[in-house]
Specification:
mainly alpha
């Protein structure tokens, strides 16, 4: 059996690591806001995200960020349930993470 190449460790890519950690911090705040507002659907959606954004390897971060970004859909958006002072920075951090991942992929 051969080991699967999971790519570089996150600490080797500080721009990616910092973007993921920033998104995780906002995700924690969004999750708390969802619980306070009894927005069960969004609390369930957000529950795994902070840990995943903190702990996932680079190979998994794009999938996680894209899933998180899906909360900003045209018909059902997290923006309708939670405050903009949290939803907009989260979106910006997710976009920053996705750009850092794309930049890293181009450099490899």
């Amino acid at each position: 059996m051969t080991a699967v190449d999971r790519g570089p460790a996150r600490h080797e890519r500080p721009a990616i690591d910092e973007a993921a950690l920033a998104a995780a911090r906002i995700a924690d705040r969004l999750l708390e806001a969802a619980r306070v507002r009894n927005a069960v659907r969004w609390a369930e959606f957000l529950t795994p995200l902070p840990g995943q954004l903190r702990d996932a390897g680079i190979a998994d971060l794009r999938r996680i960020a894209m899933r998180a970004r899906a909360a900003y859909g045209p018909k059902d958006s997290i923006r309708e349930a939670l405050p903009a002072e949290l939803t907009e920075p989260f979106l910006a951090d997710l976009d920053r993470l996705l750009k850092a991942l794309a930049r890293d992929a181009m450099e490899r």
